[in-house]
Every structure is written in structure tokens, then in C-alpha cells.
Amino acid sequence: MNALSRIDELANLDHLFSADELAVRATVRQVCADKVDPYVATWFETGQLDDVRGLTKEFGKLGLLGMHLTGYGCAGMSATEYGLACLELEASDSGIRSLVSVQGSLAMTAIWKWGSEEQKQQWLPGMAAGELIGCFGLTEPDVGSDPGSMRTRARRDGADWVLDGRKMWITNGSVADVAIVWAGTEEGVRGFVVPTDTPGFSAPLIKHKLSLRASVTSELVLDGVRLPADAVLPEVTGLRGPLGCLNEARYGIVWGALGAARSSIEAARAYAADRVQFGRSIDGFQLTQQKLVEMTLEYTKGVLLAAHLGRLKDAHLSRPEQVSLGKLNNVRAALEICRTARTILGANGISLEYPVIRHMNNLESVLTYEGTVEMHTLIVGEKLTGQSAFR
């Protein structure tokens, strides 16, 4: 029995899922084993994700990009299948799951949900195939948790729109073919489909990261970007547009963080079985077993919560505060699992020969993006009390 089966079989977690769902999980696990795992430590160390387009095309062949959407070349899979895919992607690396999440749950979902038929036909098939890469411009240098205060503006000039502003911490930005950019207008916040070869648009790469290093992260600069009238997403005005997309990405994180946790538990259990101190392997000592048990317990609870939220979403019963509950719990638990796993590995825990420190560093970003701990706490708190405490 291998490490993975000991961790998942303790509570027989596979019983939660259908044969089709397990087949999706197995497919994603295999492509990650072939195309990501042999290289990801090097990508992280160098801070460069090699051949991004080759990787997106591989994911596109499997239907992983926008896999929960229907039509336009999208796979139309269930929310639970998408969740299991996110778990396997993040078991390889959070940056790889981010690549898929931003492409499908943010950029593609914005077009699919709020775009015109012409916009959908123009962009979605190529994005689903991985031939085109998208990014999602919401966060700004001085605006994170309060998107209503964004400074990026779009003004009408005759029949055109002209965009000016900055976006920050944008996954896929420097490699994207299309950016979904949210900007304030006289009508309220609107979304714009911006081809990245439009004059005035640039996406300088953000360097010196110590987290999500196997991920392309960029600033978006919009200096007088002129767009035709039909570049605006016609079906939404206001913050419900970007927030509706963010909720899809947050759902993927509920599952994805568990992949980083599982990988770290596997590494710690295998290491403890091989590491000999005081004449015996350290997995025979009580304190090490306690750590392994506590990590597995928290992981198991996280999977149960994710599966429950997946079933609710598949039944069209999911609410945003439930996703916030899942993100708040599972990312926080996964980060603590990684920290505990690191202690079992001792000094080796900081080496990229093992995945633990990489997962731990990555989760520091996952803890913050798509809503900080504080924001999700207040979302859940408002539902519990009926009182908004954001201001």
C-alpha cells in the first residue's frame, strides 16, 4: 500500500466519488506526473515556467480549461470533477492550478457568463483548446480587498472606449492573448475584453517573488488603450461581474489547497519511514505519529467539506458564503499541514528535493488571493450575525 492510499483510504475517501469522477482525477494525476512533476522544482527555483503554451495545450487536450463550462469547446464537466482536477493540479504546484483557474474560472467564465455571443465565439474555443491564454485584471497596486475603489477608468470617446490604469499581481498576464479588465465608468464597474496586442497595453513581469515562482505573475499597464464599443462585456454592470467570477476561482481553491496538503503529508510520511534516529525510523516515535495523524485528520475533514460543497454546487444550491467557508478552512488547514510536515523533515524540509517548502511558500499566496482570511471571515460573519463589519 503506497503513501497516497494510506492517507485517502484511512477514511475511504474514494467512496465519496463516482467512477467517472475518479477517472477524471486519475487522468489529471497522470498528466501532472508526466508534464509537471519532473520539472516543477526547477521552475520554482529559477522562477520561470518554461513553455507555458505547450503546457496549456496539453491541458486543453484533456478538456481541463474551462472544464466546468458548456459549449464553445468546453468539456461541460461537473463541479465535483473540476474540484478533483484542481486538487491534483495543486498537488503538483499551486502555480499550475493557478494557471488553469485563471484561464477557466476567471477569464473564460467572465466571457462565458457576461459576454456577447460574438465574444464567446471569438475567444472561448481557442482558450478551451489552450491555443489562447487569458488573464483577469481586477486587483490594483493600491486596491486589493476593496475592488469598488479601483482607479482604472474607462471613458467613452465617440464610439470607442479608452482605458487607463494599472492592475497588479495578475496571473498569466505576460503570456496572455486576451485580458479581462475591470474598470470604473460613468455607468459603474464594467468588464472589457482586451486583446493584449492593443496599443497602450503592456504586461511587465513581476520578479523577486518567493511564492508561486512556477507561475507567470505580471502587472498590467493600460495607457490610453482604445477599444471598439463591442469590447465591453454587455451582460453585467457593477461588482457582481468580477465577484461572480471570483467565486468560481475560490471554489477551485477549496479543493486545490488540499492537493498541496496531501503532497506534503505523503512526503513527510515517506521521509519518516526512511529516516533513522536513535536506532529506529522516526515514524515509530509517538510525537511523529501524532503529527502524521493530525495532518491526515485535517486533510480528511477538508476533503469532506470540499466534496459537500461540490455536491451543493452540482445541485445549483451553492452560495458564496459557503465557498468562503471552504476557502477559509481548507487553505488555513493546508498551510498548517505543510508547516507541520516541514518539521518532520527537519533540515531537509527546506530543500527543493522535497515538495514541502515549495507548497508552504505557495500557500502563503493562496491564503491571500481570491479573498484574504479577513475578508472571508467577515463574509461568513455577516451571514451568521446579519451585521456587515467590512467598514
Automatic annotation (TrEMBL):
The keyword Cytoplasm does not apply. Residues 19-131 form the Acyl-CoA dehydrogenase/oxidase N-terminal domain. Pfam families: Acyl-CoA_dh_1, Acyl-CoA_dh_M, Acyl-CoA_dh_N. One of its GO terms (biological process) is fatty acid beta-oxidation using acyl-CoA dehydrogenase. Residues 238-384 form the Acyl-CoA dehydrogenase/oxidase C-terminal domain. InterPro entries: Acyl-CoA_Oxase/DH_mid-dom (IPR006091), Acyl-CoA_Oxase/DH_mid-dom_sf (IPR046373), AcylCo_DH-like_C (IPR036250), AcylCo_DH/oxidase_C (IPR009075), AcylCoA_DH/ox_N (IPR013786), AcylCoA_DH/ox_N_sf (IPR037069), AcylCoA_DH/oxidase_NM_dom_sf (IPR009100), Glutaryl-CoA_DH_mitochondrial (IPR052033). The keyword Membrane does not apply. Its cofactor is FAD. Keywords: FAD, Flavoprotein, Oxidoreductase, Transit peptide. Belongs to the acyl-CoA dehydrogenase family. PANTHER family: GLUTARYL-COA DEHYDROGENASE, MITOCHONDRIAL (PTHR42807). This is Acyl-CoA dehydrogenase.
